[in-house]
TrEMBL record, chains A, B:
<protein>
    <recommendedName>
        <fullName>Transketolase</fullName>
        <ecNumber>2.2.1.1</ecNumber>
    </recommendedName>
</protein>
<dbReference type="Pfam" id="PF00456">
    <property type="entry name" value="Transketolase_N"/>
</dbReference>
<dbReference type="Pfam" id="PF02779">
    <property type="entry name" value="Transket_pyr"/>
</dbReference>
<keyword id="KW-0106">Calcium</keyword>
<dbReference type="InterPro" id="IPR020826">
    <property type="entry name" value="Transketolase_BS"/>
</dbReference>
<dbReference type="InterPro" id="IPR049557">
    <property type="entry name" value="Transketolase_CS"/>
</dbReference>
<dbReference type="InterPro" id="IPR005474">
    <property type="entry name" value="Transketolase_N"/>
</dbReference>
<comment type="subunit">
    <text>Homodimer.</text>
</comment>
<dbReference type="InterPro" id="IPR009014">
    <property type="entry name" value="Transketo_C/PFOR_II"/>
</dbReference>
<comment type="similarity">
    <text>Belongs to the transketolase family.</text>
</comment>
<dbReference type="InterPro" id="IPR033247">
    <property type="entry name" value="Transketolase_fam"/>
</dbReference>
<keyword id="KW-0460">Magnesium</keyword>
<keyword id="KW-0808">Transferase</keyword>
<dbReference type="InterPro" id="IPR029061">
    <property type="entry name" value="THDP-binding"/>
</dbReference>
<dbReference type="GO" id="GO:0004802">
    <property type="term" value="F:transketolase activity"/>
</dbReference>
<dbReference type="InterPro" id="IPR005478">
    <property type="entry name" value="Transketolase_bac-like"/>
</dbReference>
<dbReference type="InterPro" id="IPR005475">
    <property type="entry name" value="Transketolase-like_Pyr-bd"/>
</dbReference>
Amino acid sequence: MTAAAPSTATHAEMASAIRFLSMDAIEKAKSGHPGMPMGMADVATILFTRFLKFDAKSPKWADRDRFVLSAGHGSMLLYALGYLTGYDDLDIEQIKNFRQLGYRTAGHPEFGHVSNADTTTGPLGQGITNAVGFALAEAMQAARYGAGISNHYTYVVAGDGCLMEGISQEAITLAGHLKLNKMIVLWDDNHICIDGDTALSTSDDQCARFAAAGWATAKIDGHDPEQIAAAIAAARNADKPTLIACRTVIGKGAPNKCGSEKVHGAPLGADEIKAARDAANWPYEPFVIPEHVLNAWRVAGTRATDERADWQARVDALAPAAKAAFNRTQEGRLPDGWQAAVQAFKAKISAEQPKVATRKASQDALEVLTAAIPEMIGGSADLTHSNLTNTKACAPSIAAGAFAGRYIHYGIREHGMAAVMNGLALHGGFIPYGGTFLIFANYLWPALRMSALMEQRVLYVLTHDSIGLGEDGPTHQPIETIAALRATPNTLVFRPADAVETMEAYEVALLNHKGPSCFALSRQNLPTLRTTHNADNLTAKGAYVLSEADGKRQVTLLATGSEVSMALEAQKLLAAKGVAAAVVSMPCWELFDQQSKEYRAEVLGEGCVRVAVEALSTFGWERYVGLDGAVIGMTGFGASAPADKLYAHFGITADAVADAALARL
Amino acid sequence: MTAAAPSTATHAEMASAIRFLSMDAIEKAKSGHPGMPMGMADVATILFTRFLKFDAKSPKWADRDRFVLSAGHGSMLLYALGYLTGYDDLDIEQIKNFRQLGYRTAGHPEFGHVSNADTTTGPLGQGITNAVGFALAEAMQAARYGAGISNHYTYVVAGDGCLMEGISQEAITLAGHLKLNKMIVLWDDNHICIDGDTALSTSDDQCARFAAAGWATAKIDGHDPEQIAAAIAAARNADKPTLIACRTVIGKGAPNKCGSEKVHGAPLGADEIKAARDAANWPYEPFVIPEHVLNAWRVAGTRATDERADWQARVDALAPAAKAAFNRTQEGRLPDGWQAAVQAFKAKISAEQPKVATRKASQDALEVLTAAIPEMIGGSADLTHSNLTNTKACAPSIAAGAFAGRYIHYGIREHGMAAVMNGLALHGGFIPYGGTFLIFANYLWPALRMSALMEQRVLYVLTHDSIGLGEDGPTHQPIETIAALRATPNTLVFRPADAVETMEAYEVALLNHKGPSCFALSRQNLPTLRTTHNADNLTAKGAYVLSEADGKRQVTLLATGSEVSMALEAQKLLAAKGVAAAVVSMPCWELFDQQSKEYRAEVLGEGCVRVAVEALSTFGWERYVGLDGAVIGMTGFGASAPADKLYAHFGITADAVADAALARL
């Protein structure tokens, strides 16, 4: 992999190809970020022509090196590399239509749009943290299938922005702690941020910072091919992850504008591009790459063809069970038989009718599921004993040099956990779940958004899901969080009412390939409400009539999670006054909204008085209760006291639910 | 300040007083976190008896040292110190009713509940970042009024959790960059996190990390009084901020359980507390502090009485203008005359009717406001030229050793920016505003929640507020963000339609002392809609009829921000079909919800068909359009293309608005 420099074109020409495609595409789009692709063109050229293991004709090869453009605004670097090395979905028309509707070449690289984007980047710090997930997945795959099957590097191009974002600290400390030595960060050390010189806002010694987190570091001239090559070669042999500080000139190649924030995020203009062509001796028309240069790049795109064939042969030679497991998990298919375990669990719960917190029900469900589905990887942001996310099947915990286990101690790094889980899911082979308190979903929300945008099967176990957590008080009581999660596209938000619904929620989440799922789970014990076993997954409908009215329905009581049993109490209070009310359990709004109009009308009860109850922000419930209904919930922050006292204090009670209904009859 | 050790009680006894109050209160509450208060009792005793400048009888003294318990779960440390040193609002009944409804002693320290909480802590990493704001405010006050008026330290007690959270990196790099040498962090280096040994999840060399960010560092035995005192004394003389790694035993004093995660977050139990009493030779009943120990602590609480009197004399001796400005800004009162500038601006806009983006209108408004209100402090998370947050009055920018300016380059640290702004606001004397893209409010949301929970006047300038940002694509187009902000209690979310509404929004925000305000501002140009000057602040009503129907109203079109002009177009389309529609501009839901029922009915139009349009998530709009109305907006993620193409692609057009109304007539 380290030899085979191209023979027919010079390094300068190959780097110029990146620079001029970037300049020309951004100029034509009248928007974009030329500074980074131009500044990092030399580094990328060395990496892609001498080191990166990839096959442009097989973009999803499982054992390819991953390349993460964490500084996603420099998307033209990725698109130029994709076109030059010969990816089928990145022809010159895509480059010419950068940032245009209906083309794959979006302003920032979008996973699923272009096949050479291993992850979506742009929100700074996400990519470098996804990369920790990639590197971790690689090590975990190697522990399972051997180094012949999983043996790839994860390269990251990161800018100052990525390293200034707090999430980067969570990433690098976790990578250093786990000694993910196949992770290599190429830092575009150009001394420029958007406001101007980075000295406006930072004085960090980045190499010292990374070293403090257990990384190897190097400083190089990011325009010197041999320094670049030597640093990468050394990094590949390090026993730790490596940071390579590549001192570059932003917008290198733009003779008048380079080295300034002016080239960061705006087209260079025709005059400057002409000057750049003159300076680089690049007489070609816009979007034209001379044949000898393109050929050299295309050769780079096929360097690993043989290596890939050898790898495939090794996969084919795996023992049948290992081979089947590898292929199955790569394709994201679940193992046979797991749903039988789901049914058995549900039947057992309905029979035994335990009174348990849904966080405990979640643990019981996870015990069953992790035993049946070996690709599930658990973890928690240092709340294992509270989230109840660990299971027997997940032992032992992951540690440096010990990657056969299935449980990750993410540390007090919620945001990092979520972005690492995105990397694990994107890498292939694993289904990650991770726990924290629901309130701390606020901390990880930007990464959860990326799970949703990339449609990744990531499971968020969010316990202590209301004022029901009690004494920890307002700082720890989620109010607005659930509304935010529900407003996030592609995201399923479950708030199960009992252990049966909890397992059903997991079943839906595991079957859903179109995005993440969140489980809002109680700290406090709740009765089993689904006391008759039903093989159908009622939670999959989003909402259903848990208890129909006795007589012609006058009132519909809508509730989720810990408040469903309260709604059942209210139903009794109303019945005592001769009012016929139905109770609807509504564990997942998004799924309910996907049901037929008829089903929704039947569940909600046309013409009925509707009262919703949920011990969280009332925001959004008008979708179901309309202008005339009532919502019993929180409109301000919580307080510190035992949970029962808080429910009474905030007027979230069966009496309040019943009274709200009576007032509307 | 450094002498005057207590003469009548030993250090061990004084520290024991903290430990036993913590043990007893947590035991009585049956919940809480004894590990940290017990582990840090020695450090706190030295700090509070020898160094901390405070006067228990004057908790809001402007020049007091700030004390931030960043590891807020250790709240009993703060409450014990407050009781022991003699704060009037922290009597023994408060200690005995720790974590109970109606008492100030919440599970985590809540600003505004107990007078010795300089900030609310508990969500990890927030406190240490607030502290950067405190230290910065101190330096800025000193630059304005002299060291005789502002000369105090900011001490932080931080745990491993605070240092693992990403926001801590944003905090320490900013503090190091600005050389905030009066910031001193006492790290409770106890090697224990909730899951167990910190070695489960981290291997950082914290001192090296802080040094890389420009901090001085020291390592001490956190139970050795003289080492503690020497380290604090050295830190006070450093020319950089200082980290003191205090090696402690978590739960020190609990003979059997100390040094383990078991003492972190649960009561010790009667047996262990008895064993602790025996081991410490502390024969006193629960909640009883012997007189000689309490007296010694009470002496510590009055150590700075004379110093405070001297300081008051210096304030009284300030030149009249400076004295007036100091007192006014400390009290949070705005200067005379600023609202005349608001009126002049509004009149000018209505007359000139510019077509400008609301981000530009915001800049124009800020030019006026920052000139009139010298305590406004601007900044941006490295998007100054996009957020348009800088003004002439704010120059020059803040830099190390140069604190007279009024503009902060926060760097690419949105979360840190928000938490630093909380510190600036809490400190007193300043009104911070800071800019980023609306989508990156996701990154700063946990700190914005703290602005809201603490009811702080912090202004969030959130530009590029929809798919109208265009080519940057889905990663940068907010969808769900505005719903989350609207669901957050105590938060005003403005989405102004033109320059007049923009200024009106700022006026409301500056007059609001009960929480933060967010301004969602367009990238793209918008016409002036308020073309007739009105001295009344219509935005203060939250929503108002911008254009009444011609004839009896059949349709109400509700819109915010950039879509208000679209609603006006739709109104014309409907008029052409003989349908009388009114257009309601709805810049702030929260304010509208506070209006009288009659006003709301009048604006919304009882019995009218209602259609809302907003180029963001449709989530929540049913509150106004009900079950039968329509909401034109986004239900999925955006795309990368010029803005006008995106509006058409996603069906957010005047035609679509008109059609939705017609379909419902």
